[in-house]
Amino acid sequence: xxxxxRAVYVRAAMTQKQLIIAGAILLAIGLLWPWLSKLGLGxxxxxxxxKGEGFAFYFPVTTMIVxxxxxxxxxxxxxx
Length: 80
Hints:
Layout: H1 2-36, E1 48-52, E2 55-59, H2 61-79
Antiparallel strand pairs: 1-2
């Protein structure tokens, strides 16, 4: 029983650490946003933008794919 409780504690501690790291990354992105927005992400070919009178719809398909690939590569490199 004690081993199970310890495993739950270790898993919870790891989850807390991951949440703190994710929060720190989001904070850094927020602070660096004025410079990151100059990279052109969000305006790539394949991103959907529809503008009409009193209506605007934006769906960054290509940008999400690029960010996903970069995040996956970094996760694989830094995770092992």
